[in-house]
TrEMBL record:
The keyword Oxidoreductase is annotated on this UniProt entry: yes
Gene3D superfamilies: Luciferase-like domain
Domain of life per record: Bacteria
Organism: Streptomyces kanamyceticus
Alphabetical keyword list: Oxidoreductase
EC number(s) given by UniProt: 1.-.-.-
Protein name in the entry: TIGR03619 family F420-dependent LLM class oxidoreductase
Length: 286
């Protein structure tokens, strides 16, 4: 099981260049960064974890920050946990992701989420009750642009003509029964366990990115069955648990369940505090 790291990276925390180097030098597997474009002051949506962390309004663009991290590393994976796909133009986002994957030598993992902040989404023109369908269409547009042949997609919320577009992401296409291959970087969908989420994972993603490990023992067999029923290859399913507070027993439990990656939560702090946390977590690396 790989051990990676995440934090709310802002204009006041450790820089992506410094953190990426520290992670690679210590043997961690990857760096994942979250996304918020802005936090409206008129927000009525409650934050899922209680009080809204002030860092949510100060986050760096994950794609710009990960590009800096790519430039100073050779091995670690570079991911989002999560990217708010509904809040992007999918044609432009496909170009950003493919460029990052090209420049990093195929090290991108795209963590996708549906979001929690209604007001933030509304400013992007997203109808809240349809956001999952918006994400599904956006991902279909990106997959069409990442295909090895010019491919069109016509959806309710996003469309693209068959087009010449490069660069292409470097991960090999994955098989789906009767639906054609999936192109693009490894894509993980975040969210709570449920039939709708698992159906979307099996349809257009490569795995699941749950927050924490609660309920995994019960949920994973369900996900694996949905995956198999969709004709996906068992070994292609990837599960990365994020926002982990690591303990030896907890990580052993994840490994027993067949989790592929644990993403430990670092403090949104400067270099000294973050490096101290990495030193403490390093004992969990194999």
């Amino acid at each position: 099981m790989r051990i990676s790291a995440t934090l709310y990276m802002t204009d006041g925390t450790i820089s992506p260049v410094r953190l990426a180097g520290e992670l690679e030098g210590r043997g961690f597997g990857g760096l994942y960064l979250p996304e918020h474009t802005h936090i409206p002051l008129s927000r009525e949506t409650p934050y899922p974890g209680g009080e809204l962390p002030p860092e949510c309004a100060r986050m760096l663009s994950p794609f710009v920050a990960l590009a800096q991290a790519a430039a100073v590393t050779q091995r670690i994976t570079l991911g989002t946990n999560i990217a708010l796909v509904a809040q992007h133009d999918p044609i432009d986002l496909a170009k950003q992701i493919a460029t990052l994957d090209h420049l990093s030598g195929g090290r991108v993992t795209l963590g996708v989420g549906y979001g929690w902040n209604r007001e933030e989404a509304a400013d992007h023109g997203v109808e809240w009750t349809r956001r999952r369908a918006v994400v599904r269409d956006g991902m279909a547009v990106m997959r069409a642009l990442w295909s090895d042949q010019p491919t069109a997609y016509e959806g309710e919320f996003a469309s693209v003509r068959a087009s010449e577009v490069h660069p292409k992401p470097l991960l090999a296409p994955r098989k789906r029964l009767g639906k054609g291959p999936l192109f693009g970087p490894r894509t993980l969908i975040g969210g709570a366990a449920g039939p709708g989420l698992f159906a979307h994972i099996a349809e257009y993603a490569d795995g699941w990115m749950p927050i924490g490990g609660s309920g995994l023992r019960e949920a994973l067999p369900v996900l694996r069955q949905v995956w198999a029923d969709a004709g996906r290859e068992p070994d292609d399913l990837y599960v990365a648990v994020t926002a982990v507070q690591p303990e030896a027993g907890k990580l052993a439990h994840y490994a027993e369940l067949g989790i592929d990656e644990a993403v430990v939560q670092l403090p949104p702090a400067g270099a000294a505090e973050v490096c101290a946390a990495l030193d403490a977590h390093q004992r969990h690396l194999r």
